[in-house]
Amino acid sequence: MKFEEKLKNRQYEMLWQEYCGFLDLDIESYMTIQNRLMMEQISLWSHSELGKQMLNGKRPETIDEFRKAMPLSTYGDYADVLLQKKGEMLPDQPVLWIQTTWEGGKQPIKVAPYTKSMLDTYRNNTIACLMLSTSNEKGKFDVRATDKILYGLAPLPYATGLLPLVLNEEIGIEFLPSVREAEKMTFSERNKKGFKLGLRKNIDYFFGLGSVTYFVSLSLASMGKTSSQASSSDSKSSAMKYSLPMLGKFILAKYRCKKENRDLKPKDLFKLKGFMVAGTDNDCYKDDLEDLWGIRPMEIFAGTEPTCIGTETWTRDGMYFFPDACFYEFIPEDEMNRSYEDDSYQPKTYLMNEVLSGEKYELVISVFKGGAFMRYRVGDVYRCIGLKNDDDKTRIPRFKYIDRIPTIIDIAGFTRISEHSIKTAIDLSGLNIEEWIAVKEYNDHNRPLIHLFVEIKISSLVSCGLGKEILKEHLTVYFKYVDHDYKDLQRILGMDPLEITILKSGTFEEYNKQTGKKLRRINPSKYEIKELLSIEKNNFSIDRARGR
Amino acid sequence: MDSFVYIPITALCCYIFLLLAFVAAKKSKLINSFLLFLSAIILWTGGSLCMRMQLWPSLDFWYNASVLGLTLMPFAFFIFVIEFIGLRDRFFKAGYLLIVFLVNIINVLTGFFLSAPQATIGTDEKVSFIYNVTWPVSILFAICVAITSHSLYLLYKYSKTNEIAKKQFMPIVYGVFILVVGHLALFVPLFKGFPTDILSGVCFAFCLFYALYRRRLFKLTLLVSRGSCYGIAATLSLLLFSNFISLFQAFIDNNLSNFKENSVLIIAVFFTFATFFIYQGMKRFIDKVFTKEEIYQAENLKEFSIMVSKSLNVNEILEELVDVIQKTITVKKIYICIRNEKNDSFFMIHSTSPLDKKYFCIQEDNPIVTWLSNNEGCLLMKDFKRTVAYKSMWEEEKKQFADLKIECFVSLKDAAELVGIVLLSEKEKHSSFTYDDINFLGSVESVGSIAVRNSRLYEKAYLEARTDELTGLLNRKYFYENLHSEYEKNKGQSLALIILNIDDFKLFNQLYGNKEGDIALQMIAKIIQASVGSNGYVARYSGKEFAIILPLYDLLRAKNLAETIRLQIADMNKYNKEYRLKTLTLSGGICAIPYAASSVKELIDNADRAIYYVKRNGKNAIMTYSERDHNLGEGNVTAETLKLKENIYSDYEKTIYALTAAIDTKDHYTFDHSNNVAYYAVELAYAYGMNKETAEIIREAALLHDVGKIGIPEQILNKPGKLTPEEYEVMKGHVENSIDIIRHLPSLDYVIPAVIGHHERYDGLGYPRRIAKQDIPVSARILCIVDAFDAMVSERSYKEAYSVGHALKIIEDEAGLQFDPELAHVFVKSIKNGLIKIKQATSMEANKKIVSL
What we know:
The complex is a heterodimer.
Chain A: H1 3-8, H2 12-20, H3 27-47, H4 49-55, H5 63-69, H6 75-83, E1 94-101, E2 109-115, H7 116-133, E3 148-152, H8 162-170, E4 174-176, H9 179-183, H10 187-201, E5 205-209, H11 210-229, H12 232-241, H13 244-260, H14 266-269, E6 274-278, H15 282-293, E7 298-303, E8 307-311, E9 320-321, E10 326-332, H16 333-341, E11 350-351, E12 360-367, E13 376-386, E14 398-404, E15 408-411, E16 415-418, H17 419-429, E17 433-442, E18 448-456, H18 468-482, H19 484-493, E19 498-503, H20 507-515, H21 526-537
Parallel strand pairs in A: 3-4, 3-5, 5-6, 6-7, 18-19
Antiparallel strand pairs in A: 1-2, 7-8, 8-9, 10-11, 10-12, 12-13, 13-14, 15-16, 17-18
Helix pairs in contact in A: 7-8, 11-15, 17-18, 18-19, 20-21
Chain B: H1 6-24, H2 29-52, H3 59-85, H4 90-110, E1 118-121, E2 127-130, H5 137-161, H6 163-185, H7 196-214, H8 220-223, H9 226-255, H10 263-310, H11 314-328, E3 334-339, E4 345-351, E5 361-363, H12 367-374, E6 379-380, H13 381-384, H14 395-403, E7 406-414, E8 417-425, H15 435-466, H16 476-489, E9 495-502, H17 505-532, E10 537-542, E11 545-551, H18 555-572, E12 586-593, H19 600-616, E13 621-624, H20 639-666, H21 668-687, H22 692-704, H23 714-717, H24 725-732, H25 734-742, H26 752-756, H27 778-793, H28 804-814, H29 821-833, H30 844-852
Parallel strand pairs in B: 12-13
Antiparallel strand pairs in B: 1-2, 3-4, 3-8, 4-5, 6-7, 7-8, 9-11, 9-12, 10-11
Helix pairs in contact in B: 1-2, 1-7, 2-3, 2-7, 3-4, 3-5, 5-6, 6-7, 9-10, 10-11, 10-15, 11-15, 17-18, 20-21, 21-22, 21-27, 22-27, 27-28, 28-29
């Protein structure tokens, strides 16, 4: 029976139990599901050609043996098999190959296989997300087959394009605009069309990257503005956009805004049932989004490799991982840092029933149901914020998304900048930069930015014009050239996230001399940057000045 | 009376039948409201009928009764609807009741709405009723329509919030529709005179009844009891009696005037039979229509209970279980999985058809097993799919169940422990499992569980008493029991007995430990059992002996079977594990009645004797015992067996050569020494009267006896002067070293007894095991003497060579202390006669030269 039919039968309690029942699990039952599915996956995977190749002839029988026998992996370990889409080498024939950019990889994209049963799980879990996004308390939700969803995410072959497909298999929720139409549109066309349709048909859900939903919401507000300022000849056509009740709502909203002397906000026009955001930096936008839509967005976690693995609940206070999507392991923060300093170091991992409240962890997943990735470092860092929650009566650990791993700078979920990409941009730009570090920071409006601290080559200080603006312009051009996502960041979100600080020549060398250590190029710790800046302030002799 | 009078009569009967039935049912507000409705409709139909028949007391009375019934009907319907959807509405309830009564009182008193009709007798002498219809009659109908509409509105409102209930009450809506159509049809000329209103009333009543049935508010069996059968049969008979008695009487009077005097008796007998047949017919009809299924279920269950209480055989019980379920619920397939002994999974051991695949198995940690263990009752797959536990199902498991189209699971429990699972596939015609099915399965489950529990306990006890724990074969006691009974059974025909004895099993245990030994025993048992199958009985006769009783077998067939088993066991360890174990061989003896024995005792004794001959003649063979062969066992060892042995030994030669070469590179003295010892040992063995084969084993043992010295440091091996106690300990270790090397060569293990014992002393003061006298294998005792002799007559770094005479003197002195006196005597004598020649010892210098090369 499809979800829609079950909805028609009004078996709400059963539906809640079926899709969101995992929230009632205690940690033992949670681990039973995890362990059981992991045993299935180990047996499938280690019999596949990929598994045999990666295990080097070892035959682990239990989960412990597997964790000992199999080192942690990254995409590079799978690239040979997956990029050529060698489905026959995998544990199960993939139905779909999902694509994403491979930050700092050998090739521009990476692809991940999705099997039939992975898609089944994905579907059930996204339905759970949909239900939870509308719920205000345990067991209560409001999903109808006639609902409309404004969908601000990319279509296939990106992972986000899967959601409309799998959801529509179960329930006839209408996507604004329809998936087929959306595929042919650019991002902004899609948003505009979506809103126009929304004005006619109403919007019940909104789902997108935090940053994108924010941008889209602002443009909606501005659309309201333009339509009110439109000349009388336009007003007819703009009125055509609205359905009659919506027109009424619009006039009321305008009146209210005028009275309260503020701009029109989406919440004046739409009463969202559910609001979901994904991606990074959602924290920066959540408050503003709540203000705009009158409902706090619920964060979910989905990715290309891990599928849809986690969701917040009605309390909007931390995410829970679905027990049947992946097997989760967690690398504690210090182990993680050690592993990034020393490539050969195998960090320790802990399981869901071993995490501690308050600790930061890097996530490691093994995808269930014939997935390819085993003990795979997704590159995301979470903080465990509690092992149980009295508010939503759960007894499993909940997490808060922190950011990408320190070696990657992710801006608004749009682009992932690695040391490699910055180095390429600098090299291509031909700018005489001696040394640099890049740090992710947030500006006064709590928006993410990439802060580049550079030191100019002493020899070119007098020969080239290398002002801050020139550097920024140049580097931006080359960032866009190297990283398409960066281009989109500016094109779609209108963000210009690069900030440059020029350091006194010799600062880095002096730092090395004084501290005896070399700074990590990407995201060194705040203390280290503070130290670097204080060293810069000090008077030190520049060795190179003496003709080296 | 018009020609359609039977319609109201039938309708009335139906209503009364329903009323009687429901009076017997368990009361609830809803059922009470239905009873009220039935009463109203009876009043209406009955009143109208009585009026048309102009019965006592008066036309007016029946007319008013029928109007009361007619107006009460919408009210009763309203009450029914309110109860059906669980609404509390006292206001309308009381209001409508008041209105209905007011209308009736007014009408009775004044005839304001519709006064009673006038009965007029027409020209054709038919009575017709003329109504004086005036406009107020529309008020009457308007009230009825309003109340009914209100009820329908409530239903509509309710349906918006409850999709499932909609299906349940749709029959009610259809009923109302039919009622309206029936009343409207009165005005259609085609139906003139035909009481369509009454007919539609019947339909309406049945629609309500059906709605109640869909709600599962009552069990039909309870409703339609024997009591109602009697009641209805009595009513029908009474009707028949009252209507036909005068006709019957007239018939007898006119046609059968002879029996006129006995007419009362005839009529009484006739009506008694008639009543009886009516009752039987009624009962059959009711059983067939209403209670057939339930009675059938109950009967099946009863039969099942009786059957399983008679049996203590698990398989029989399971067969009955499958049978009863399939008979009662029309499922396509039934499978039964029972927990295996290791307690880690449930294996399918029974199914509806023997052609079904049986390799199906459910793991212990399967979430379905967990659910069934923790919950009572049966589990429907479609419900289970909606639980969180379903998330942990493996895709393969889901597929397994889907392939078999499993839709329902029933647990079989022994106290709280789940011992088995009954899996039911989909039902015929894809219908779903009903509430009754589930109830029935629940009953089957409890009866089945108890039966399975008892039979399992019994079978366990029975098996434990009969079988050998390790191998699962019959134990010795039951072997004798079976042998005796088979002997009695097959006295006139033939009965063969094979006894198989594992060769050198003690050594196998010593080499690999008892655990490995037990595994080997189990494997051997499995092979024997598989080869014998259902043709005979296999027992563990003693520690390392197996016995096979083969009824109707002659010697030749028994021997062929034994040979097959022997060959399989010889191959058994070849394909085993990463490392190779020693090949286990069997010595077997066969005897059969009537050919070679005439009593059970003789049968066993002769088979034992045959084994004895095999053992004496080099083991690893099967021999039959027959009178002719008495004492001539050797002739019966097959030629192939001997050839096989030869091959084995020639293979070993290379290994021995490799090992001695290894000693040579390390310590040339030891190499020479081993060669010398081999020569002396073989000569001594012959001198002692041993056969060629044993001498060969001793030669090999002699060549390898010091192979462990490879592991002794050279400075200890060649140390001039006396060894320190620590060094001596290290030196003594060479015996164990030798064993450690040889044990990895299963093909050479037969030399181990000689090697391990060659430093044991006859008086028990040697090493490593400190065994004495005959406990030391004779081959070791031989090695002991010749080893010491060669050492004495050789020159070593720590001593000069002794003269032969001196050495022999020492041997003679030590006879009975270090050496076996008998062997020592033979050895000294053989040297002295020149039967054994002295090998030239290599000098130290020559030795050193070789080493330096």
